[in-house]
Amino acid sequence: MKNKTKIQQSIWLNPEDSKIIEIIDQRFLPHQLIIEQLKSWKDSEIAIREMHVRGAPLIGVTAAFGMYLACLEVKDHLDKVSFFLEVATALKASRPTAVNLAWAVDRQLSLINGLKNSEEIISKSLELAQKISEEEIENCAKIGQYGLNLLQPLIAQKKGAPLNILTHCNAGWLACVQHGTATAPMYAAHRAGVPIHVWVDETRPRNQGARLTAWELAQAGIPHTVIPDNTGGHLMQHGLVDCCIVGSDRTTRTGDVANKIGTYLKALAAQDNKIPFYVALPGSTFDWEIRDGVKEIPIEERNSKEVKFIQGLHEKNIIKVLISPPKSPAVNFGFDVTPAHLVTRLITDRGVCQANEPSIHELFPEY
Length: 367
Ligand code: MRU
Known about the structure:
Strand order of the largest sheet: 6-5-4-7-10-15-16
Bound molecules: 5-S-methyl-1-O-phosphono-5-thio-D-ribulose
Largest sheet: 7 strands, mixed
Helix content: 40-55%
CATH superfamily of the largest domain: Translation initiation factor eif-2b, domain 2
C-alpha cells in the first residue's frame, strides 16, 4: 500500500499483486482516508456507480482497469465475446455523462477483440490500462503548464497580490490520477511561487468542493476558502474573483461543456461581471460525435436521497442527516451544460484554444 501521508494519486496497481487495483474510497474524505481494493470487474463497476471514485478522467481509468479485471475472469465464461460486451455495457452505463468512461472501455474492447490468446489478452489489457493512466497523468501536467501561461497576464495585473480563482466541484488529482485538470494550473502556480487563493464552491449535493477540493488544497498548502454554492455571483460583483477554472465531463466538438450541476450559473455570473471563465480538460473529455451540448449530452440523474440528506462528521463518526421534510420530493441532476459562448478559453493538453469548432480543430485536427 502507498504511504498514506504522501498519497497524491487516486488509483494504482497493487505492487505485490497485479490482480488487485487500489483506489482511495472518496466517499469518506476528508475525514477518513480509506484505501479500497478492486478485485473483480464488478468491484470496479460498483466503485464508479456508487462514487467511491469519481471525476471524468478517473472513472475512465477505473473502467480501463475494470476491463483488465474482466480479462482475468474471462476463463470462467464460455462465450467470451458476450462476456466482454456485457462488462463493457455495464461499465459504460455506470455513469452516463462523462465520456471518458466510454472512451476508455472502447479502447480496451477494440484491443481485446483483436487478440486470441488469453495470456496475451491479460497482459496487453493491463498494459493498456496503465498506458491510459499514464497518458492522463501527462495530459494533466501539460494542462498545468498551459494554464499557468494563460494566467500570466492576470498574475501580472495583481502586482504580487494573490490571484483569486473560483472553482466548482472537484477537478483535482482525486478526479484524475494526478495533478487534476482545473487544479493543475493552481498547483503549477503554487509551485512557481505565484500567490493564489482559491474560492471553493461547496458543490451540493455531494459536496465534492467542500470535502475533496478543500482537502487537496489544504494538503498542498494552497490558501482557499469554502463557500456555499450561491456565493460566487456576489464575490464576482465585488471584485473578489479574478477568474474561474472548472473541469469538464464531456465537451462537444463546438465547445459546449458539461460539468457538475451549478457550473452553468457560475459561467453566467462570470460573463455578467466580465470575469474569464476557463475550462480545463484532457483530449479524452471531448465527445467528437456531438455539436449541441444542451440537446445531446446525457445528463445523469441520481438518487434524490443525495439532496435530502447531508453527510458529515459527528463526534468521531461519519453520519448522514435529513435536511428536508421526509416526504418532500427532490430532484438530483448531476451535471449541467455551459454553452460555448460563455467559455472564455479551453485549457487542453495540446494548448489553449477558444471554445469553438475551428479553434478546437486546430489543436485536434485528427478528429
Ligand atoms: O459527479 P462527479 O464528482 O464525478 O463530478 C465531477 C466533475 O464534475 C468534475 O468537475 C469533472 O469530472 C472534471 S474532473 C477533472
